[in-house]
Design goal:
The protein is α+β, with helices and mostly antiparallel strands. It has one domain: Rossmann fold (3-Layer(aba) Sandwich), CATH 3.40.50.410. Helices cover about 40% and strands about 15% of the residues. It contains eight helices and four strands; from the N terminus they run H-H-E-E-H-H-E-H-E-H-H-H. Helix 1 packs antiparallel against helix 3, helix 1 crosses helix 7 and helix 2 runs parallel beside helix 7. The longest helix has 15 residues.
């Protein structure tokens, strides 16, 4: 991501986790609390736990999580490996001191997988662990195919990235949509509800996009 997109994403999560509707969803859930960790990722060799597992059960614990996230420095790395990020995130559940009814990975990014393992086998492996994957594709800027950025990123996320019961994609096409989108996504996930009007991960009847498009575009760009 560009630095401004990273800052927008970070700020979006800071505001969303402390939003009244998110806290209300947490408090009225099955346990009245959730465990949360925040990871930033890029290429195959870069996944960083920014905030380790934390228990969120009220406004104070949500604000403490947000403060910890706000203090962490932003870093940038090249390439996009959603597959490596998913595999890393799935492994973090085994390290969590908490156990819950549902396990969910949020994926937020501005491009297709272009490095590391192909996305589909890793996505399927994560789903076999009974982990749900939801997506927040960032589509604020004009696509740059050389770096795996594509116009149909929302369709790519629907067909190639997300999965599991009630999974969904919320695309962000305008800056002002970002914070509401994250807030809505967190509230839906915490409540375990499927959005009524947003694309959901019902079985794809027919593949609409090549799930290796990011890798193919990278190779075309490198051959120039």
């Amino acid at each position: 991501m560009d630095l401004d997109e990273q800052e927008l994403q970070r700020q979006g999560y800071l505001e969303a986790i402390t939003a009244p509707e998110v806290i209300q969803a947490i408090r009225t859930g099955a346990y009245g609390r959730i465990a949360l960790t925040y990871v930033e990722w890029a290429g195959p060799a870069y996944q960083q736990v920014v905030v380790p597992w934390r228990l969120i059960e009220d406004r104070a614990s949500a604000e403490a999580f947000a403060a910890e996230l706000a203090e962490a420095p932003l870093t940038r790395e090249r390439w996009t490996s959603i597959s490596a990020g998913l595999r890393f995130a799935a492994g973090l559940f085994a390290e969590s001191p908490y156990r819950g009814l549902r396990r969910v990975i949020d994926v937020s990014g501005d491009g297709a997988n272009n490095m590391g393992p192909p996305i589909e086998p890793v996505r399927d492996w994560v789903l076999e662990q009974d982990i749900v994957i939801n997506g927040l594709p960032i589509m604020l800027k004009e696509a740059n195919p050389g770096f795996g950025s594509i116009k149909e990123l929302d369709i790519y996320y629907e067909d190639c990235v997300i999965g599991g019961p009630g999974s969904f994609v919320i695309p962000v096409r305008e800056r002002e949509q970002f914070v509401p989108a994250i807030r809505q996504k967190l509230a839906l996930e915490v409540a375990g509800r499927q959005p009524a009007v947003l694309p959901a991960a019902s079985p794809i009847r027919e593949k609409r996009i090549d799930c290796l498009i990011g890798e193919r575009l990278r190779m075309q760009w490198m051959d120039r």
